[in-house]
Amino acid sequence: MLWPFNHFRKPRLAPPGTIEAIYGMIVTQAREPIFYRDLGVPDTVNGRFDLLLLHLWLLLRRLRTVQGGARGATELSQALFDRFCEDMDDNLREMGVGDQTVPKRMRAFGEAFYGRVQAYDQAMDGGGEALAAAICKNILNGAGMDHARQLAAYARATEVDLGRTSEAALLGASFSFPPAFREGVTP
Question: 160, exposed or middle or buried, with CB in 10 Å at 0-12, 13-18, 19+?
Answer without folding.
Answer: exposed
